[in-house]
# Entry
Amino acid sequence: MFETDNLLVREYFRKTMGEDGLKMMENVPDREITESEIAELNDIKLTSVRKVLYKLYESRMAEYRTERNDDSGWITYWWSFNRDNVKKMMDKEADDDLNILRKKLEYERSGEFYQCHCQCVLFEVAAEQDFWCEDCESKFEHFDKGGLIKELEEQIEERAGETEKEGLRATGRKQSNNSKLKAYPKRK
# Structure
């Protein structure tokens, strides 16, 4: 049912729902199905199936309807899946990631930072403390953020470019070695 042969979709399911979720999504039929049928079909515990189904429901990738058995009083949940929302959720996550990077870049460009051995602060904070950190008892020195800004710009450009190429807004990016920021001093 889902495009689990698509590497991007597989990675998205693996990341958001784990291996059981990926296995489950590879085998769901194109019809309504109960959670117990999904568990049997995939040889996965019912509790694991329910966790995945609830995540899918929260993401609007799955819907359910209930049916009550008049004799026993049991309620059966019939699940159906909306594959169109997979791309929407991937796009939303990609947009969120890109916006976070853009906000980080804007923040870094917005002020001058000073660092000591334990933290990095804005000029105003360093000046208020007479350029002396009481936590580590060392002097605040100017922090050259040029490398960090360049790295953020490259990540934004890379992710925005990949999304155009892949047809997704950003989640379609490949994990590269440069996709994580280097360890820069902690900001306060």
Remarks:
- Helices lie at 7-27, 35-42, 46-58, 84-110, 123-128, 146-166.
- The chain has six helices and eight strands.
- Residues 18 and 52 are 9 Å apart (CA to CA).
